[in-house]
Automatic annotation (TrEMBL):
Needed co-factor(s): Zn(2+)
Family annotation (InterPro entries): Aminopeptidase_N-like_N, Aminopeptidase_N-like_N_sf, PepN_Ig-like_sf, Peptidase_M1, Peptidase_M1_dom, Peptidase_M1_pepN, Peptidase_M1_pepN_C, Peptidase_M1_pepN_C_sf
Residue span(s) of domain Aminopeptidase N-like N-terminal: 97-176
Gene: pepN
Chain ranges of the Peptidase M1 alanyl aminopeptidase C-terminal domain: 530-844
The reaction(s) this protein catalyses: Release of an N-terminal amino acid, Xaa-|-Yaa- from a peptide, amide or arylamide. Xaa is preferably Ala, but may be most amino acids including Pro (slow action). When a terminal hydrophobic residue is followed by a prolyl residue, the two may be released as an intact Xaa-Pro dipeptide
The protein's name: Aminopeptidase N
UniProt-listed Pfam families: DUF3458, DUF3458_C, Peptidase_M1, Peptidase_M1_N
Domain Peptidase M1 alanyl aminopeptidase Ig-like fold per the UniProt entry, residue ranges: 434-525
Entry-linked SUPFAM superfamilies: Leukotriene A4 hydrolase N-terminal domain, Metalloproteases ('zincins'), catalytic domain
Entry superkingdom: Bacteria
PANTHER family: PUROMYCIN-SENSITIVE AMINOPEPTIDASE
Record flagged with keyword Disulfide bond: no
GO molecular function: alanyl aminopeptidase activity
């Protein structure tokens, strides 16, 4: 496959003033008729007229009303307009086959409903067009079809029996185009914007799902208000439609005025959704809504700039969640996710800069690095310039670039203009891949405390040498009694090595470094368990207090693994003290009970030059869990009593925090009582959070088969709950049983593997089960490879994404590497393997 480079960017030779599309819907022969007004682009002399198109059968084409026979090859239609220096109208009609579209890109059918996914390059599967984000136009759409609901972007126009028209007055790139047609029902509401615009809100779902819409609608209204209040951004159309669809490769899509959601990312009810589901849905609704300004009104010049909209929009949705719920809890959860998903990517063969410089298949770059590290970079920028300058820069960004397709250079320039700072070094965060490692050394002499930091970013593919980056280090100092002697300040750490001194201190302080996780780096610091325990007890920064407990747990596990040590008393006592403290938010205490994931432990061992043994990591984790249960024995019933919820169910921060802590306590209790309490809880559970938490405890204990069967019977009609049923069994199996459990489930009649949610429900937990996936013998590698081979011709995008299960393979021993290499080669040898999967596996192999 061809590689596309950022450095080769050239503008398109023409601007598009207007797009008119007519769809005559038919499952296997939909006609798309286009009329597009082009004019020469004054910014370039290049007049090549090339349109993208894939899988289209062209029926006719005209330029300015004259029949035209264009040249079509390899997905490119080329023609030379008779008068390229004057405006002209291109018309064409193509036939497409939505029914045969299993890749879920372009126009496809899901349960008889038509829907689209055009980001990144799906529009070229609908009609011939300059399918690139820097070509923006207004769209007018007419849909002819027998369906009761016919939707497209923008404002509704004329409609009647068998047709509907839509007009989107805001120029947009083709990737934001959307169309939906089907037998849908709406949950409707209204929103009045700050300037008084009345907006019709609709959440469209399949009949039967009406009861799962209320939460999403509330989340939408909160998002609309929040963006007005915090960013001064108002909605700009008369209607905002959201559609839930069952077959969808990603979470959701921000199409202008017509967001399309994976049903798992929008449908919610207390009986079928966990608290985590609710929180995630709220965040995704916000995310897609916020794209209306950061992504749609201001879009990306080219796909290398993807983080321009994604990093910023993830950052904004995180701010929203922090405001609505608990800021420390959100921050901790985001850092857990970052370490679980972005760090392995950044520290392995798939490592790429936040703004990549080349790709073969852009779908492979919708990554944790572009999204989550992209958001971290914005958080760092905000820390460095301060809140006021950040707000001013954003105002300037919206004012200066509204209606444009922009670059990271444009983004940084508004910050430079507002602050007068030179951001050349900061820009390395966008161009250098890899996670910087920061080493800390300390010195204390005559009342002067010196902190010496050094930074190294290890080599990543294509980038052997790295330059120092600007790392904002949020630092506070604590005195011996735990009082803060130096409140949080931001150290600007810009050189390979740099010292910071603090004078006039009465006693040697204990530093609290990288508060709030002020930069996405790995902190390497030799400290005693006693000092960590001190921070766990006293740190005034909630993130770092949690982090102290986390590192204490990690070091404890690592010594158990490498030295066969017993669980560390500092950890267990520190944990007990924190959990006893009823002034602390239950959600926060629940997070304190978490352990580093087994994959994270493997990464740390690998970084320290030790080959990880997955079974040993599993065993140590189990042992520590068991000791924790015993150590907290007396406290567990009290935690359960404290976290009882007496009010009617609400998926808010307060209640979900209680359920999280109660669930964590139940998991420990089950290790002591053999599941008696969990069985009882399962019988009384009246919401999915409690039901799933009780069932999980039982399965983890090797019990609960009767409950599992009852769960299936209760929920067999609900596809989203059955996804959970699949995932649970694989995720909670013991390492030696994971593969046989997964294999047996692939034979279940409900294993509709062509549905991405169902495929991921089974194979996601397989890949995430560290000790099970890497269980000796490599059967899990083979099973996953078998199914990737099967899925690739059907759905390359989801296949390629699942390949990342293998990205950490170089961490492990020679036997495991050899077993994985066999599977990677076997997949790569498949004839006709997709560009998506080929690129991923080639990069993973390195
Ligand atoms: N642009 C989408 C999102 O991140 C992904 N298709 O919201
Ligand atoms: Zn997004």
């Amino acid at each position: 496959p061809a590689t596309i480079y950022l450095k080769d960017y050239v503008p398109f030779g023409y601007l598009v003033d207007e797009v008119h599309l007519t769809f005559d819907l038919a499952p296997n022969a939909t006609l798309v008729t286009s009329r597009i007004a082009f004019r020469p682009n004054p910014d370039t002399d290049n007049r090549d007229f090339r349109l993208n198109g894939e899988g289209l059968s062209l029926r006719w084409a005209k330029i300015d009303g004259q029949d035209w026979k264009p040249h079509v090859r390899d997905g490119i239609l080329s023609a030379t307009p008779p008068n390229p220096e004057t405006p002209f109208v291109w018309e064409a009609q193509v036939e497409i086959n939505p029914e045969a579209n299993t890749a879920l890109e372009g126009l496809y059918l899901s349960n008889g409903m038509y829907c689209t996914q055009c980001e990144a390059e799906g529009f070229r599967k609908i009609t011939y067009y300059p399918d690139r984000p820097d070509v923006m136009s207004t769209f007018t759409v007419r849909i002819n079809g027998p369906h009761p609901v016919l939707l497209s972007n923008g404002n509704p126009g004329a409609s009647g029996e068998g047709f509907a028209e839509w007009h989107d007055p805001w120029p947009k790139p083709a990737y934001l185009f959307a169309l939906v047609a089907g037998d849908l029902v709406a949950h409707s509401d209204r929103f009045t914007t700050v300037s008084g615009r009345e907006v019709d809100l609709n959440l469209w779902v399949r009949p039967g799902d009406e009861g799962k819409c209320a939460f999403g609608m509330e989340a939408l209204k909160k998002s609309m208000r929040w963006d007005e209040e915090v960013y001064g951004r108002e909605y700009d159309l008369d209607a905002f439609n959201i559609v839930a669809v069952d077959d969808f490769n990603m979470g959701a899509m921000e199409n202008k005025g017509l967001n399309i959601f994976n049903s798992a990312a929008v449908l919610a009810s207390p009986e079928t959704s966990t608290d985590d589901n609710f929180e995630r849905i709220e965040a995704i609704i916000a995310h897609e809504y916020f794209h209306n300004w950061t992504g749609n009104r201001i879009t990306c010049r080219d796909w290398f700039q993807l983080c321009l909209k994604e990093g910023l929009t993830v950052f904004r949705d995180a701010q929203f969640t922090s405001d609505l719920r608990s800021a420390p809890v959100k921050r901790i959860r985001d850092v857990i996710e970052l370490r679980a998903r972005q760090f392995p990517e950044d520290q392995g063969p798939l490592s790429h800069p936040v703004r990549p410089e080349s790709f073969q298949e852009i779908n492979n770059f919708y990554t944790a690095t572009v999204y989550e590290k992209g958001a971290e970079v914005i958080g760092m920028l905000k820390r460095l310039v301060g809140d006021a300058a950040y707000a001013e820069a954003l105002d300037l960004y919206f004012a200066r670039h509204d209606g444009q397709a922009c670059t990271i250079e444009d983004w940084l320039k508004v910050f430079e203009d507002v602050t007068g700072r030179d951001l050349a070094q900061f820009k390395r965060w966008y161009s250098q891949a890899g996670t910087p490692r920061v080493k800390v050394e300390e010195d204390w002499q005559d009342g002067t405390y010196t902190l010496t930091l050094s930074q190294v970013t290890p080599p990543t593919p294509g980038q052997p040498d790295k330059l120092p980056q600007v790392i904002p280090i949020a630092l506070g100092l604590l005195g011996p009694n735990g009082d803060e002697v130096q409140p949080t300040q931001i150290l600007e750490f810009t050189r390979a090595q740099q010292s910071f001194t603090f004078e006039g201190l009465a006693a040697r302080p204990v530093p609290s470094i990288l508060r709030e996780f002020s930069a996405p780096v790995v902190l390497e610091r030799e400290t005693s368990p006693a000092e960590r325990a001190f921070l766990l007890a006293h740190d005034t920064d909630p993130f770092n207090r949690w982090e102290a407990g986390r590192t204490l747990a990690e070091e404890c596990l690592l010594t158990m693994i490498t030295e066969g040590a017993a669980p560390d008393a500092d950890y267990l006592n520190g944990l007990l003290a924190v959990l006893r403290d009823e002034t602390l938010d239950p959600a926060y205490r629940a997070l304190m009970l978490g352990l580093p994931s087994q994959s994270e432990l493997a990464a740390t061992l690998h970084r320290r030059g030790v080959t990880p043994n997955p079974q040993a990591i599993w065993d140590a984790t189990e042992t520590l869990r068991q000791s924790t249960a015993q150590h907290l024995h007396d406290l567990l019933p009290r935690l359960r009593a404290e976290t009882q919820v007496d009010q009617p169910f609400a998926p808010d921060a307060a209640q979900s925090g209680k359920r999280a802590l109660g669930g964590a306590a139940l998991a420990l209790l089950t290790r002591l009582d053999g599941g008696a309490q969990a069985t009882d809880d399962y019988g009384r559970a009246d919401n999915m959070t409690l039901q799933l938490s009780a069932l999980s405890c039982l399965l983890k204990a090797g019990k609960g088969q009767a409950e599992l069967a009852a769960f299936y019977d209760q929920w067999r009609h609900d596809r989203l709950v059955i996804d959970k049923w699949f995932g649970l069994q694989v995720g909670l199996a013991s390492p030696d049983k994971v593969v046989e459990t997964a294999r047996a489930l692939t034979g279940h009649p409900d294993f509709n593997w062509k549905n991405p949610n169902r495929f991921r429900a089974l194979f996601g937990p397989l890949a995430m089960h560290h000790a099970g996936f890497h269980f000796a013998g490599g059967a899990a590698y083979e099973l996953l490879a078998d199914w990737l081979i099967r899925l690739d011709p059907v759905n390359p995008q989801t296949t390629a994404r699942m390949c990342s299960a293998f990205q950490t393979w170089r961490r492990y021993d020679a036997d495991r590497q050899a077993l994985i290499a066999v599977q990677l080669d076997r997949i790569l040898a498949q004839p006709g393997l997709s560009r998506d999967t080929t690129e991923m596996l080639t990069r993973i192999k390195g």
